[in-house]
Amino acid sequence: MNESTTAPAPERAPQPAVDDRRSAPLWRTLLSNRAAVNVAGIAVMVVIFASLQPNFLTTANLQTLLSSITILWVLALGLTFVLLLGGFDLSVGSNLALSGIALGWLFTSFDLPMVMVIVLTILFGALLGGGVNGFLIGRMQASFMVVTLGTLTLFRGLVNLASDTKTQPVTSELLDNLAFGKVAGIPITLILMVVTLLIAWYVLRFTYFGRDVYAVGGNAKAARLAGIRVSRTTVIVYAIAGGAAALGGVIQVARLGAASPLVGETIMFDAAAAVLLGGTSLRGGSGGVGGTAVGVVFLGVLSNGLAVSGVQSFWQQILSGCILASAAVADKIQRDGWRSLEFRLPGALARSGGRARADTSG
Amino acid sequence: METAIASPGTEERRGDDLISLHGLRKRFGGVHALRDGSLDLRRGEIHALIGENGSGKSTLLNILSGQFRADGGEVVLGSATLTPAAAQAELAQRVAIVTQELSLAPDLSVGENIHLGHSKRRRPWGIDWRSTYADAREAIRQLGVDIDPRTPLSQLRLDQRQLVEIARALVQGAPVLILDEPTSALTDEAVEPLFTVLRRLRDQGTAVVFVSHRLDELLGLADQITVLRNGRTVAARPRAAYTRQLLVSDMLGYEPEHYTPPALEVESTEGILEVRGLSVPGALREVSFEVNEGEVVGLFGLAGSGCSEAVRALAGLEPGASGTVDLGGRDSVPASPLEAGRRGLSFVPGDRGDEGLALEMSILDNLNLGGPARHSRWRRIRRNAEAEAGRAAAASMNLVASSLSAPVGSLSGGNQQKVLLARCLGVRPKVLVLEEPTRGVDVGAKAEIHRILHQARDAGLGILVTSSDLEEMLVLCDRFVVIFDGQVVAQARRTEVTETRLSHLASGEES
């Protein structure tokens, strides 16, 4: 896509050369690519952890790492759609738990095949996301922060009501396979992660719906004027986030062998961290699922590596918190430059910037 | 006041030099926004700065007001010559800027706004409101206008808010005041009082820097004119040395071919849009008119007359509107832009950054925004076909862009407007409705946009346009519908009206 479209200048008037932009040097392009920076960060972490801990680069540990990020991965992919649209969904963790409870109820109350139960659970999650969050935000034009803050509590309350705060065992061979099985030596969770990523990437990058999501996030008024159904797009996007949360709930039940009301209470924070770390902007309209995937792996490697190194878990929190906060600053600098910061180096450092004719008279 | 000025860099100027910028350079990434910017400001002078979009005007103004730091060049403040870095803080102190996006707090009172951020009226127990308001009253009085400083800002009209911002600059005691396109959002009646204020400030010794795209008003106001082109100061002369023609050719760097609209060859009576009894609560009462195939109809009225509401109602943006809008099959007012589009009406909004384009997305994506109206949303986008159509549109519009995958926000205003226009024409509408088709667009691109619209008209498109720029309306339109106070007061062919008569009609002076 590098076609030059500088139209031939008509004979009557020389065109003002307004757009003589040249492409930036390679290092700058790489640095401004958040995913590239994150991949480099992951590589550095892997090298450090591997050299410090022989246990880190073992098949067993890598599988632990993988299974520890599967749920987060699925959730974060769904949440990416919401952030691209310029919204947010605080309720995905509660949705995950409620969908898990729904799965347990469907499993014990009806004699349905497990595949059917899983599909119904995901539809249930999508309905919670699209029918409740999406309806209120898209159709009723309510604030997404307030709505999802409400449903965060609402869904959690329903979890406790429906489960009577008890854990319900769910035993199924299919679920067991989903969490721990392998196909040709490849963990099914890994396959699931790759497939979900590919689908999300395809939808965002290649379909009209994907472009609508970016357009609404970039400029909702312009999108509406261009004939995009903004509210319908909004409903679908929250349904996607809800469906993804429910899929996370299914995996959670499969891992535990039970539907527990206590799951997913903090996962929304990790999912949001992964999406933002992956370079998707809170303002909407820019970013993508590729970055999110890298962000999830980044957080996963960090937490697993520190755990393997025997570092206490609160250090993981401190570190990943610092990284996310620095990423926010890096993002600002990359977008608007150093000068946009409301921060100046104090005293002597700043003055070395030079005063008066030094460079003109010598 | 009339001192001889030659080209920048060589002049010897008498008088009280306040601030001089010489050979300023500024780059953003790989883009030279400013290559050789110079500006000489003197006390008691209204200095007009002009140039096409992308000529470096805003960069120069941002450096002058201390918001950007130039990469090179020098700044002369009184008798001291400084590097841009050393001068930045000093400039920020001495220069106040009033931009199009007013930086005021709408929920605070006028007096509070005037003292915003630099209140010297603090007492140990808090703010001394009495002297705050007394100061504010004095500042407003200096402007020769009458606004109660206790009024909440949100109750003021736009032109009054502008005056508040000017008063704020006065209280800061800045000797230099920049006004960046202050008139673009004002009605004609509001412009003259503003100019009176500016002349008064000049006579009190302030250096006023004035930016505008409207050449005529600029020639009527300025004492000194500096012209920028492609990031360079190409001319700086006193007003008396300029004619309109010289100004335009300095700005463009060539003699523009005067765009004379091709006359309407065949007058069609094939009605394509028929509006009957269109009402918008609080803005428009029972307005009726029609647009025929192959003609440009101008909806003309002063700001607040209801013209804007009329076109927005047709585009499906006024939920409260009533009446009938007939686009081949009698029907109600479109309920949404989507419905308007399906019925064959395409709308070009006046504020392209706010409503027209997703600035971070590529030119190509912007040309094709809203594609799913014609396809299933889950289908794969046909990128090749889009790229081909995009290239064709870019060529026919004479779009200047490095690549169709560049973000549309990187284009100049004129080229952004062409992208928006290309999208609206690309859906092959029966009627094209435009609001302020060339707001913030430079002279060259403006003529091109007029040419494109006339070509579309000659191909049989019905066009309805509303613009506050009367000059533009006279070039563009074949027929006028004049609106005053929410009602149609006159309809006339282009050949039957003059500029004066149109303004009279629009002010409700004749019927």
Q: What does this 3D model show about the protein?
A:
The complex is a heterodimer of chains A (362) and B (511). Chain A is built from 16 helices and four strands. Chain A is mostly helical and 362 residues long. Chain A has a single domain, classed as ABC transporter involved in vitamin B12 uptake, BtuC (Orthogonal Bundle), CATH 1.10.3470. The longest helix of chain A is centred in the C-terminal third of the chain and has 27 residues. The N terminus and C terminus of chain A are likely disordered. By secondary structure, chain B is of the alpha/beta class. Chain B has two domains: 236 residues, 3-Layer(aba) Sandwich (Rossmann fold); 172 residues, Rossmann fold, CATH 3.40.50. Chain B contains 17 helices and 21 strands. In chain B, the strands form five sheets. A six-stranded mixed β-sheet of chain B has the order 6-9-10-3-11-12, sandwiched between helices. In chain B, a hairpin with a 2-residue loop joins strand 7 and strand 8. The radius of gyration of chain B is 25 Å and the shape is globular. The N terminus of chain B is likely disordered. The chains are: A mainly alpha (362), B alpha/beta (511). Chains A and B meet through helix 9, helix 10 and helix 16 of A and strand 5, helix 10, helix 11 and helix 13 of B. Chain A: One of its GO terms (molecular function) is transmembrane transporter activity. Chain A: It comes from Nocardioides soli.
CATH fold-level name of chain A: ABC transporter involved in vitamin B12 uptake, BtuC
The radius of gyration computed from the alpha-carbon positions of chain B, rounded to a whole number of angstroms, is: 25 Å
Total number of beta strands of chain B: 21
Lateral strand order in the biggest sheet of chain A: 1-4
The total beta strand count of chain A reads 4
Shape of chain A: globular
Q: Which architecture of the largest domain in chain B does the CATH hierarchy give at level 2?
A: 3-Layer(aba) Sandwich
Classify the fold: give the CATH topology of the largest domain in chain B.
Rossmann fold
Largest sheet of chain B: 6 strands, mixed
